[in-house]
Amino acid sequence: MKLVALASLVALAGVTSVSAAAGTNYFAYNSTAVTTFKGVYLAPTGTTHWGPNQALNDDDKELDFGERLTLTGLNPGLYDVKLVDQKGRTCIMHRVNLTKETSFEIRDTSLTNCK
Amino acid sequence: MITRRAVLIGVPLALAVAGEARAAISGMAYASNEKDNTVSVIDLAQMKVVKTVPTGQRPRGMDLTSDGGRLLVCLGDSNRIDILNTKTWAVEGSINTPDPEYAALRQPGNNPLYVSNENNALVTVWNIDSQKMLGQVPTGTEPEGMAVSPDGELICNTTETTNMAQFFEYPTTKNVANVLVPPRPRWAAFTHDGKAVWVSSELGGTVTVIDTKTFKILDTIHFAIEGLRSTFIQPVGISITHDDKLAFVCLGPANRIAVVSVPEHKVLSYVETGQKVFDANVKKYLLVGERPWHASFTPDEKYLLTANGLSNDVSVIDVAKLRVIDTVPVGQQPWMVLISPS
User: Which of B5, B18, B88, B270 has its C-alpha lying 20 to 30 A from B133's C-alpha?
Assistant: First the structure.
């Protein structure tokens, strides 16, 4: 029972860390050669508590290659990032560290596990 | 900060070219590092970074006064352009303007400064001595490249989303022509005789040559590289030699610079910034220089330096030999490189 309660707290903390508004601006750089993303979701590493679609923060609601996306509502921490490209393929980047860095890059090598 | 990757690539390459003859170069080059919020100062004689200057947030476009004494750095996230003294690196003044991406000085006289304000669909005009705004001009969506003709009478701005090259007269800033070009025009460069302007289209994969008297399209230059998907060919920066014979076009993720005959509008060859270099120490081929977006010549035009955004370095191309002869690690995501005129 205690374990369940603890797990719930951890999960809740995860949700909070994604949804809580923070003062720092975070960014994702799309450094792929030709891939545009219509979905960019972050969840605390090891969870599937995906936050809102951050791609909607962009003017055209997509993260184009060569473009930078402002990420909102994040606190420092480790995140998994779910990327959805224009063809609907989904790719996961694991353990993106936004503890010290305020940005991360999506490269072509980040897209090797897309389904 | 230099990434580990940049160091691993840069050191063996430096070893590989250490014995290669190179004419003496003097002066300084400046690379704006978008992700690091710094400008790297490269001593061309040593071909290494001798100073890293902290800047405001997101340094991208830059321009230099004609004597090289002041470097103007567009700081997109700080909503200003800082004017840096290139001897002391003190900030001599700031122009407060929203989301500046590129800026171009009118010559001669170092004034005014034309700024593309990306998110405001404006070109703003500034006096850099008083840092006062002289005017503003509405543009299409997402203004990008800024260029001023050699005689200072014509201003060209490219609008990334509306796919136009827009032309304005000096000093009225009257809009005299709008020319549709292929998607995502990023950069404009006038030929030195002022007769044409070359506009790169990143998504279109082309360079459009426009007559500056009639504003008619003279030609559209296409690029094709064997073994490379056409979508990887994304032209951005264009550097034209002073004799208007050669243009060097940065092709982004193609990791190459196209060498184009200016009179014929014809691609002559491609220089790989990601050139394969044999290193006697490590016995393997190395790739350097990923995603070049902008380049600048040394004053004698013997060398061309490219800012490579993904490999965090600057490639040095021997213009006569058309090959990369050196690589200088700089900060993260170098956007543009400029070279002091003296």
Answer: B88
- Write the DSSP string, B28-45: EEEEEETTTTEEEEEETT
Taking an 8 Å cut-off on Cβ atoms, the answer to whether B231 and A33 are in contact is yes
Mutate which of A25, A26, A29 to test chain B, going by most B C-beta atoms within 10 A? A29
Sheet of strand B143-148, all strands in order from the earlier edge strand to the far edge:
B143-148, B154-159, B164-169, B175-180
Put simply, whether A86 touches B (Cβ < 8 Å) is: no
d(CA B116, CA B61): 10
CB distance B31 to B336 below 8 Å:
yes
Residues A34, B229: C-beta atoms closer than 8 Å:
yes
Q: What is the pLDDT of residues A89-114, one digit of tens each?
A: 999 999 999 998 999 999 999 998 88
Q: Kind of pairing, strands B256-261 and B266-272?
A: antiparallel
Q: Is the peptide bond before B299 cis (omega within 30 degrees of 0)?
A: no
CB B84: neighbour CB atoms within 10 A? Answer: 21
CB nearest B35 (choices: A59, A66, A103): A103
ipTM of the complex, rounded to two decimals: 0.82
Q: What is the pTM of this model?
A: 0.87
Residues B185, B164: contact at Cβ < 8 Å? yes
* N-to-C CA span, chain A: 37
Summarize pLDDT for B62-119 with one digit per residue, the tens: 999 999 999 999 999 999 999 999 999 999 999 999 999 999 999 999 999 999 999 9
